[in-house]
Amino acid sequence: MDKLQLISKIITHLEQELKDAIEAATNARDAAVNDESVAETQYDTIAIEAGYLAQGQSKRVDEFETAIKAFHVLKTQKHIVEEIEADTAITLGHLVQLEQDVTKSHWFFIAAFAGGFVTQLEQQNVTVITPKSPIGQALVGKCCDDEVKAQLGLKTLEDFISTVI
Asked: How far is 150 from 43, CA to CA, in rounded Å?
């Protein structure tokens, strides 16, 4: 599976999210400084609320920019394009398939950002997970054929790592 193509798809997704976040931040900022937002009474908080919203949206913009930069750096990492050895510990940039997911054509991509993003690549479903997620915590540091156990809400996932790319 082409991890560079996967990372490019993630970057494209994040760039669209960034574009939307910039528009939302601009709209919130405009609302905060609009003449119609000026308080008419001491209980009128529209401008204050719009200011908080603008601040939050600006923080989202920063987070998307950081994520995009991180994926560009990840593309330059050696283990993204080279074959890995069987005893290599799972870390950022690895594609992992669990035994139960082989028939479902499902993979997990370990990344610092964009957790929860789902896409298809080469007719395989790929879910981006972070090392902070329950499955990410269970996978990071393990190797191919290791047993994995993770608490997912009320369910416990028990499986084996089938493939690491």
From this structure: 49
